[in-house]
Amino acid sequence: MKTMKALGQTKFGGTEVLHEATLPVPEAQGSDLLVRVKAVGINPADSMVRQNVADFGKLQNSELVLTGWDCAGVVEDVGPQADGRFRKGDEVFFAGNIARRGCNSEYTVVDSRIVGRKPASLSFIEAAALPLTALTVWEGMVEGCGIPLGPQPGTPKRALIIGGAGGVGSIGIQILSRVCGLKVVATASRPESVEFCRKMGAHVVIDHSKDLKAQLTANGIDAVDYVLNTINPDINFDTLTALIAPMGKICSLHPITKPVDLASLYVRRISVVYELMFTRPMLNVQPEMQGAILDHVSALVDAGTLRTTLVTQKPWTVAGLAEAHQHSQSGKAIGKIVLGPVG
Amino acid sequence: MKTMKALGQTKFGGTEVLHEATLPVPEAQGSDLLVRVKAVGINPADSMVRQNVADFGKLQNSELVLTGWDCAGVVEDVGPQADGRFRKGDEVFFAGNIARRGCNSEYTVVDSRIVGRKPASLSFIEAAALPLTALTVWEGMVEGCGIPLGPQPGTPKRALIIGGAGGVGSIGIQILSRVCGLKVVATASRPESVEFCRKMGAHVVIDHSKDLKAQLTANGIDAVDYVLNTINPDINFDTLTALIAPMGKICSLHPITKPVDLASLYVRRISVVYELMFTRPMLNVQPEMQGAILDHVSALVDAGTLRTTLVTQKPWTVAGLAEAHQHSQSGKAIGKIVLGPVG
């Protein structure tokens, strides 16, 4: 039996639970691809699963758990019912399925329907920064909020991204400004995060630690049509609803658990849209849409419309993974952290 | 000064407050049309305004208030900035603006941008049944929920309409089944309302006084993709969320005022969409979309795709208006009530 190196955990806790492990190389069954992992992107979901505080169901504290739901690699084998788009040797990227093992291992298996072609113009490290966050923005804003792909006639609609310099924020700025043609306001509070938001394409950057309404007004913006809220909505939901124009939409990436005033949204016809990138693969609802979105994102990268959000690279070691988790959890990370090369 | 007859009220209360009045014929200024009213549709908003319990702001108890926000009539004069679509003599229909007087008078003025051409194949009485409810369904479901116009490839998505035999429900069944190509489940509890839902095009009719989930299951439907909820969501919101498929949407025509469990909607990515037909004219947000929707609805009627939802006609008198309000408030009304001929 062929084996492989993995970075995993058998109990939940701080980064000290992470360790090296040896696993059998999995087989591509059903609609799966077997992928040789080249680089692994880090997301907040990794630390949430490591600590077992994820919103999407508790894991068992005994099995070997691998985190890492963002991958770029090479197709090694194709399952008998796999999507006909892929052949051995194809370079791919994908965000995976949180109901299965993450991809912190030399090989991984993934449902071919949620896999996209890696942008040819990016390295594996650069490509692994994109899938999870790009899917989140595309599903939440283009699909969930119904924002059309631009350019649009007339005055551009306005989007506010809370947490502009983070992983979702940094590809969100790009997609909403360059693909959807919106006027994008991003929030950031440190000089380096403000600069990063501007580099990603934000038209206006405001400080989320100060009065948002006053800062929008100072920039000639009376209200925004869309909000992409990357932080806990229990903190800021009512603040956001005061900024929204009639028929506006708020996309939340996290559940709203505290009571909120929904009645006040009625006369302005404001909608609340949830986005969780793992919904489709986890519940097996139109998973093929994720493959299609990633292929589209890949084409936009190769056309020069979108760029990687990679900022920090760490070695694919236990120490590198631990540092990446800590950096991700610090709340100070700018853009994306990717581990690699794998192996 | 030319005067006209009107049916109005100068205090709030039961139908006994309604009385006949004489008013000057208004002038078509700005972007308005002056319309000779031929028929007036009755909606729940009329009784709410009569009693001053509308969600959209309290009125003053002294001025002459006219209700009636559904009208079919003939253009008598065109304001200097009016939409170029209209000429004197054109037959039109529209739902109006609740921030202005309703149209229970021989003449009324209306912003030309929210006016549509009356279906040529309908009488004024038949046409006045449609604007407010058709706009509500179109804005709430096609725009708000993002339901594409059909036919769609693959298995049809499923919509549940709570209150299928009412004014909104009866045009909702038609639009969602015949224009959007959805499988439509409507609720109704009396033999005559069940029959009316079927006549409007409902594929399945279930009883809202019994277990909805069990009845859906008995009809081979495991979940629905959209809900059009025409009743108070404080009564049934949590019941509805249990019926919704992942990525489903609930359209509410009334504000949600009680605390609801929004966290449980997260993993399934369920959105809450509000619809209030008066938002656009009241807040002057893209009012021209209402003219465009009504023109589209008119064409669909003349093509035989949609039909009037008129069921009850009353004379345009104080007594007729009072009876219409009482019938509308009874909760037993099927389809629409229209008053006319006016004058």
Automatic annotation (TrEMBL), chains A, B:
What GO molecular-function term can you cite, just one?
zinc ion binding
Record keywords: Oxidoreductase included? yes
What are the alphabetically sorted keywords of the record? Metal-binding, Oxidoreductase, Zinc
Tree of life domain? Bacteria
Q: Does the keyword Metal-binding apply?
A: yes
Name the family the entry cites. Belongs to the zinc-containing alcohol dehydrogenase family. Quinone oxidoreductase subfamily.
Give start and end of each Enoyl reductase (ER) domain. 13-339
One Pfam family recorded for the sequence: ADH_zinc_N_2
Task: Tell me what this protein is called.
Answer: Zinc-type alcohol dehydrogenase-like protein
Which species does this protein come from?
Answer: Hyalangium minutum
Q: Which residues form a coiled coil?
A: none
